[in-house]
Every structure is written in structure tokens, then in C-alpha cells.
């Protein structure tokens, strides 16, 4: 299955929020950073596993998580998220640079943090927040979380699909994300975490990202309303 084919099993709800349908394992449903910014209720499907990258409200959204929890859902959380979600559910605590197996689904964590001086207060490395790498439909997916271009991105191994923030302010901007994408060399790179931040200028950011990423094919997903 190609990188483009596996994207057919992905829904983007905007910002850093994605749903993945793992057809290879019987249509299991995984979310990363589900959030509530204007999505239609019909877009929700109940989750087998929910992954949260960090504790900020636009990533660790209790209202969104409540809509997709079912009996047996596992919520994978880094520090600070359990308390914000305030749910009775099965949790797995995630820390950087670890491998996990949750109900037969294997994944690993990658650090996610800021390095630029003007952003250090947003995602300090000491918070131990994360991105995730997992295999779905026989493709390796990297969701970077909220992060700058960090050294760890240079040694991720083979990545089929990389989802990178490009919006600036709190994370990499477009220029930094271009550097990151060219270093990661994923088969496909999907920009995220930018439209609300950039506003009406977001199409220009998408075009710049597409034109200057040379070591990966950039695919801009259609956002679910």
C-alpha cells in the first residue's frame, strides 16, 4: 500500500487532529489529538486507542475525547493530560523514547519540544511531551506533536508518512518545517497545525511547503468540516 493509499484511511479534523482507520487489522480506529474546532458530530467514530501528544487544550480536549470513548478504549497520555481529561477510562502513560504495546498495537514515542528561545515556554523539553510513531496499514506514520525541528528527527528511521506542524508561533514555521521534512525524508509529508494560526495566508504557506520540500512528497489533506 502506497503512502497515498494509506492517506485514504486518514481523516484530518484540522489543527493536529487525525483519525486513522487500520484496515489491515480489521478497521480499528485510532485518533491523535482529537479536538472540537467545528467538526460535525457525524465525523466521530468510536476509538480503540486515543493518543494525546501534550496537555494544551487544543490537543488534550476532554469534550472531544468523551465523544469517541467506548468500553475498552485506551487513552495514551503524556504528563499533565490525565488530570485535564478527568475521565474514567483505561490510561497508558507515555514518556519520550519508549516503545509500547497496547492491545497488540505497537508504537513508540519521540520527544516533542521547542528549541527556539522565543518558544521555550510553550513546549519545554522538561515537560516530556511526545510525538508518536506507529505502523498502520503496513505504513509507518510519524505524528510529530507540537515541536520545533529537533535533532531526534534526523534519526527516526524509515517513515512512510510524516505529519509536521508548520504554523509557527508555538512550533516550527514553514521554513523550519521544510528543513525538518527534508531531513526526515518520509515518502509523504502532511502539514498540520497551521491554518488557524496563519489565517487567510495559509494557501501561500501550503504552496511554499510543497515547492521547497525536495526529499518527500507533500500532500495537503482535505479538512473534515
Structure write-up:
The chain has six helices and 13 strands. It has a single domain, classed as Ribonuclease Z/Hydroxyacylglutathione hydrolase-like (Metallo-beta-lactamase, Chain A, 4-Layer Sandwich). By secondary structure, the protein is an alpha/beta fold. The radius of gyration is 16 Å and the shape is globular. A seven-stranded mixed β-sheet has the order 7-8-9-10-11-12-13. Strands 1-2-3-4-5-6 form a six-stranded mixed β-sheet, with no helix packed on it. 19% of the residues lie in helices and 26% in strands. The longest helix is centred in the C-terminal third of the chain and has 11 residues, at 174-184.
In summary, what is this structure?
With 225 residues, this protein is of the alpha/beta class. The protein has a seven-stranded mixed beta sheet with strand order 7-8-9-10-11-12-13. A six-stranded mixed beta sheet has the order 1-2-3-4-5-6, with no helix packed on it.
Amino acid at each position: 500500500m502506497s503512502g497515498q493509499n494509506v492517506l485514504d484511511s486518514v481523516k484530518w479534523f484540522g489543527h493536529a487532529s487525525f483519525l486513522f482507520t487500520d484496515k489491515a487489522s480489521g478497521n480499528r480506529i485510532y485518533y491523535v489529538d482529537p479536538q472540537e474546532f467545528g467538526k460535525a458530530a457525524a465525523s466521530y467514530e468510536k476509538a480503540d486507542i486515543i493518543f494525546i501528544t501534550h496537555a494544551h487544550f487544543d490537543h488534550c480536549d476532554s469534550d472531544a475525547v468523551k465523544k469517541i470513548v467506548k468500553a475498552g478504549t485506551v487513552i495514551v497520555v503524556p504528563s499533565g493530560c490525565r488530570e485535564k481529561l478527568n475521565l474514567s477510562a483505561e490510561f497508558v502513560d507515555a514518556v519520550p523514547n519508549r516503545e509500547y504495546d497496547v492491545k497488540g498495537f505497537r508504537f513508540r514515542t519521540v520527544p516533542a519540544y521547542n528549541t527556539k528561545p522565543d518558544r521555550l515556554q510553550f513546549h519545554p523539553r522538561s515537560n516530556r511531551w511526545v510525538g508518536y510513531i506507529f505502523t498502520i496499514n503496513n505504513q509507518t506514520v510519524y505524528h510529530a506533536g507540537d515541536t520545533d525541528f529537533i535533532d531526534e528527527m534526523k534519526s527516526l528511521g524509515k517513515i512512510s508518512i510524516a505529519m509536521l506542524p508548520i504554523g509557527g508561533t508555538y512550533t516550527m514555521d514553514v521554513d523550519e518545517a521544510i528543513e525538518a521534512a527534508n531531513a526526515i525524508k518520509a515518502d509523504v509529508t502532511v502539514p498540520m497545525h497551521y491554518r488557524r494560526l496563519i489565517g487567510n495566508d495559509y494557501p501561500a504557506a501550503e504552496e511554499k511547503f510543497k515547492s521547497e520540500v525536495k526529499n518527500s512528497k507533500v500532500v495537503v489533506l482535505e479538512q473534515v468540516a
